[in-house]
């Protein structure tokens, strides 16, 4: 390489951004001394050094790999989100199922509790009925005064039990008052009735001579087991028996009914009490 060619090459090298200042000074010194061999060697070293300092060009394939990697990561993140969402849905579904199961268990327990309560009430009612029957039989043996008679809401009066006691047994039971007995044929739906005028008590019988209904009239001096008497107010009957199942009002009377138990009112005062099985 001639000296002129070297000079031209040196200009190119000097213009490069990567040439170190100390190398440039050395080049200028060699040029001034016209030392072509040393100049060429130094130029080669500068070129090598410049190449080392040049930024490494990115391979287009690397960009493709990076894009693929980024896309892969995005897909993985999406998959993770889908899995997490599915897990959350499953957990929610499981919680809902557990809640439904708990509600079913609570409902079952509540139903069992109500059944037990109803059974207990029936047992208590049966026990009370038996006690009332025993009490009524005991009272019947010594009842003489009209004020001592009690009508039990389960259909017992003295030792008369509706649906069981026959007309002959009624006469025997009420023998102390038989002098005031009046027999009436074909009363309402019944075959006949016994009316004890001294007590103002009417007992009706079916065609099989079984007692079916007892009615206490205006002159009855006794009371019901819960304490209602003839002449008591309409309000007291509600206090004792609660709101009626049936409420009838006519020009002559009012009627409150609870299953087989009925109270008649005139001027809002108790006028008759009836029990029918």
Q: Spans of 5+ residues with little confidence (pLDDT < 50)? A: 17-22
What kind of sheet is the major sheet? 8 strands, antiparallel
Which strand order does the major sheet show? 4-5-6-7-12-11-10-9
Order of helices and strands: HHHHEEEHEEEEEHEEEE
Structural class: alpha+beta
What shape does the CA trace take?
A: rod-shaped
Number of helices: 6
Tell how many strands the DSSP assignment holds: 12
State the helical fraction: 40-55%
Specify Rg, calculated over alpha carbons: 58 Å
Q: What integer is the average pLDDT?
A: 77
| First-last Cα distance | 141 Å
Write the layout of secondary structure elements.
Layout: H1 3-14, H2 21-33, H3 36-53, H4 60-140, E1 150-152, E2 156-157, E3 160-161, H5 167-173, E4 181-187, E5 190-196, E6 201-205, E7 211-216, E8 223-224, H6 234-241, E9 246-249, E10 254-258, E11 261-266, E12 269-276
Parallel strand pairs: 1-8
Antiparallel strand pairs: 1-2, 2-3, 4-5, 5-6, 6-7, 7-12, 9-10, 10-11, 11-12
Helix pairs in contact: 1-3, 2-3
Descriptive keywords:
four-stranded mixed beta sheet, eight-stranded antiparallel beta sheet, rod-shaped, 277 residues, single chain, alpha+beta, 12 strands, 21% strand
Nutshell version of this structure?
This protein is α+β, with helices and mostly antiparallel strands and 277 residues long. It contains six helices and twelve strands. Among the domains are: 3-47, no CATH class; 146-276.
